[in-house]
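### Sample
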Amino acid sequence: MVNENGENGVTKFYTNGHTTFDLNVKQVGEPTLVQPAEETPKGLYFLSNLDQNIAVIVRTIYCFKSEEKGNELAGEVLKEALSKVLVHFYPLAGRLTISPQGKLIIDCTNDGTQGAVFVEAEADCNVDEIGDSTKPDPITLGKLVYDIPGAKNILEIPPLVSQVTKFKCGGFTLGLCMNHCMFDGIAAMEFVNSWGETARGLSLNITPFLDRAILNTRDPPKVEFKHQEFEEIEDISGTSNLYNEEMQYRSFCFEPKHLEKLKAKAMEDGTLKKCTTFEALSAFVWRARSKALQMEPDQKTKLLFAVDGRSKFNPPLPKGYFGNGIVLTNSICPAGELIDNNLSYGVKQVQEAIKMVTDDYMRSAIDYFETTRARPSLSSTLLITTWSRLSFHTTDFGWGEPVISGPVALPEKEVILFLSHGNERKSINVLLGLPVSAMKRFADQLQEAD
């Protein structure tokens, strides 16, 4: 059914954090604080309840290589452009703190003590040697992203930390450490692409809309839905014991012909009138993972995934909305029903979860957090994050588009990542981590489906 990305057909993966390549990166000088080039507003910057739910650190890298330009000016150009673009995205220069209401908020002092953290480094090898970023390899790729020493929690990590690493071949990487509470994938890419436009001397293609108060809670809050995304599910299958095994992370590439085959399989029993690539792939992976983890038939299993609510809000969110415009939707069913039924059963669950996301549902989710302060539970859960539609590959700081771009690692063991792949971006890489025995069963199912 799928190919595993690797040169000459060789499977590449790491187990329990071990990798075959020892990347040596040396920091050059001390980290600096990059402040907005012009005066920006002071005070507390509001974060909506959709921002509160996903305050996790996301690490990504972009790798650039230009034979003509080299990398001598890379740090200088990106640092100067960052200062200029922060005028438009000034909350990224602030610091996370807790509001009197007990929620995350950004404190923007604009007094010279804050700013985005910027680090320069050098690597003793060529860019080509760091491998394939479509493989989750936090040991190697993690050296290309700066970690704040001694940080005990997210409040001690600035919202934006960047590292420019120069390589012997003349290439360089930009490693970003950003807090998801600042923006979802769409808004994050708009920021990074705006940074690139600024570095090339261009005006911003999309001006950020900074007022998140448009997603404030209603007064009084009105919870109209069950919001099972927060439901804690009992692990009657002993799945947690499996995770005592060594973890293995692998990447599987679904080419267009495989994706079409999945959609056809989902439609073959006549239950569904239509089926998208996302729906078929999500249902297939959810089912295969549940089977690989040997869940009991009566075990409830939850699927979580984000839906872009920008166009679903009434009125729609403004263009360039700077923040999280996504909402988590869900489906819960017995593992036995998911595994034993045709693929159309799982697809139907996904479709119902998508259909559930309306303005009323999203407003209810915002109000639910206001009244409960609950966080989505990942017990007996698969969380699918879709980056396949994000424009990682178009970022240009003046050295052309990146030759490599993507995540450094998966944030949690329950997370599976969909990434676009190939020159035409029509293939989808599925990145996941499982206990070793479960990964073998997962891979076997993909081979059987071919």
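The longest helix spans residues 277-292. This sample (anthranilate N-benzoyltransferase) is used throughout the tutorial notebook.
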